[in-house]
From TrEMBL:
It is found in: Cell membrane. Keywords: Cell membrane, Membrane, Transmembrane, Transmembrane helix, Transport. This is Sugar porter family MFS transporter. PANTHER family: D-XYLOSE-PROTON SYMPORTER-LIKE 2. It comes from Luteimonas rhizosphaericola. The chain crosses the membrane at residues 16-36, 56-77, 89-108, 114-135, 147-169, 189-208, 271-296, 308-330, 337-358, 378-401, 413-432, 438-460. It is a multi-pass membrane protein. Residues 23-467 form the Major facilitator superfamily (MFS) profile domain.
Length: 476
């Protein structure tokens, strides 16, 4: 095993830091589109409900349908990336983003809309696992966490951009269901706005190299050596090539899903269960209820559509600020402390939101009515919850999934964790309108509070720190 001092040295002669940062930023455009595609639905719920004349269950499925594609995309992206490459899968995702953005806006029925949203989901699922994996595989350990955290900033920036675009388009048209330009309603233009960053992502991907770790795993050592030399310089590149070779030396076969089962015990490796737990708890705390149904949520407690969309913009801005703080902290304090601090913060703030909602009454239209003080408490606590999430589980979960698995099982481990993440996301998103109509906001948020409490103990007992460790040191 390489000596640790070589891995953690603050300076690496010959390293092309600027190039590493640049190609990582290109990869994070996938995260931006992930966020935009996820958040754009927030301002279009009224539009698709009106256009397709759907009830609560159908509306919930229309919103959540993308997440089915996300689960499939995440599942296959990891294994296909082991076969065809990380960059190749990102290129395919870019094409799917373009198709989905256009089709979702032009759809004339729920069925047609769901098809295009599922295509978008395939892209989001692939980008969600491939972008952080690519960054982790090209970045040095000493600032890998910061670069991988930029992925979450990109996701939140995408959400923020979609919230801002939704707000501005609805304001120009007077509402999301009003006609805007060329005879099309504003909610359709909300989807079409994504075409610009999606096309940019597709073009820029042609200018970044393939992951060197993928190239070594495929036996393409000369290509890998060329990429590593470009990233780290000739001497460091040669050393890194040797480290990657050594990490794969005990098992020369190509990566496959069966590698997730330990040969020694015949059981699924513990690291896989930890990955699944991280991926699942990130969703069970209910964050995407805020991201996907923010406008519906705030209208349900008495805010106008315009004010609700503006609150989404505020939440997006706070999220970006929180992620920037994480970039500054993650390689200093580590991943695990941020996770458990975030879990405690989310449990407290979700509890306050639950309390505020529990004090409300229901008007003749069935909408929750809060007093001024309780409305303010719900608004502040909900935004504090978003901040705690984006200080911790939002970025850190993706950082850890991208780096915690050994080289041999990284693609397969990401596939399983990604499937778990998006399946949980789908279940939370699909059930929220029914929970809202059936048991109310207070009970729904009470469930999310309990999950945040449980996540504290999960982190303390099962999650191990990965700060400062090279990918070749990860154990399964």
């Amino acid at each position: 095993m390489p000596r640790r001092e070589h891995m953690s040295s603050p300076h690496a002669p010959g390293e092309n830091t600027g190039f590493i940062i640049l190609i990582s930023l290109v990869a994070t455009i996938g995260g931006f589109l992930f966020g935009y595609d996820s958040g754009v639905i927030n301002g279009t719920v009224d539009g698709i409900t009106t256009a397709f004349n759907s009830d609560a269950a159908v509306t919930g499925f229309n919103v959540a349908s993308m997440l089915l594609g996300c689960a499939v995309g995440a599942w296959f992206a990891g294994t296909l990336a082991d076969r065809y490459g990380r960059r190749t899968m990102l290129l395919l995702a870019a094409v799917f983003f373009i198709v989905s953005a256009w089709g979702s806006g032009i759809a004339t029925s729920s069925f047609e809309f769901v098809i295009y949203r599922v295509i978008g989901g395939l892209a989001v699922g692939a980008a969600s696992v491939m972008s952080p994996a690519y960054i982790s595989e090209v970045a040095p350990a000493r600032y890998r966490g910061r670069l991988a955290t930029i992925q979450q900033i990109a996701i939140i920036s995408g959400l923020f951009a979609s919230f801002l675009s939704n707000y501005l388009l609805a304001k120009v048209a007077t509402s999301s269901v009003a006609e805007l330009w060329m005879g099309y309603e504003a909610w359709r233009w909300m989807f079409w706005a994504e075409l610009v960053p999606a096309a940019l992502f597709f073009v820029l991907l042609f200018f970044i190299p393939e992951s060197p770790r993928y190239l070594v795993a495929r036996g393409l050592r000369e290509r890998a050596k060329g990429v590593l030399s470009r990233l780290y310089g000739a001497v460091q590149g040669e050393r890194k090539l040797g480290e990657i070779d050594a990490s794969l030396a005990t098992d020369h076969h190509r990566p496959r899903l069966s590698d997730l089962v330990s040969k020694a015990t015949g059981r699924i490796r513990p690291i896989v269960w930890v990955g699944v737990g991280l991926a699942t708890f990130q969703q069970l705390v209910g964050i995407n209820v805020v991201f996907y149904y923010g406008a519906v949520l705030w209208q349900a407690v008495g805010f106008s559509e315009s004010d609700a969309l503006l609150i989404n913009v505020l939440s997006g801005a706070l999220s970006i600020g929180a992620c920037i703080v994480t970039v500054l902290l993650i390689d200093r304090v580590g991943r695990k402390p941020l996770l458990w601090i975030g879990s405690v913060g989310m449990a407290v703030t979700l509890g306050l939101v639950t309390f505020a909602f529990a004090t409300g009454g229901v008007d003749a239209a069935g909408r929750l009515q809060l007093s001024d003080s309780m409305g303010l408490l719900a608004l502040v606590a909900a935004n504090a919850y978003v901040v705690f999430f984006n200080l911790s589980w939002g970025p850190v979960m993706w950082v850890m999934l991208g780096e915690m698995f050994p080289n041999q099982i990284r693609g397969s481990g990401l596939a399983v964790a990604g499937l778990a993440q998006w399946t949980a996301n789908f279940l939370i998103t699909w059930t929220f309108p029914m929970l809202l109509a059936g048991i109310g906001l207070a009970t729904a948020y009470g469930i999310y509070t309990v999950m945040a409490v449980i996540s504290v103990f999960f982190v303390i007992k099962f999650v191990h720190e990965t700060k400062g460790r090279e990918l070749e040191q990860m154990e399964g």
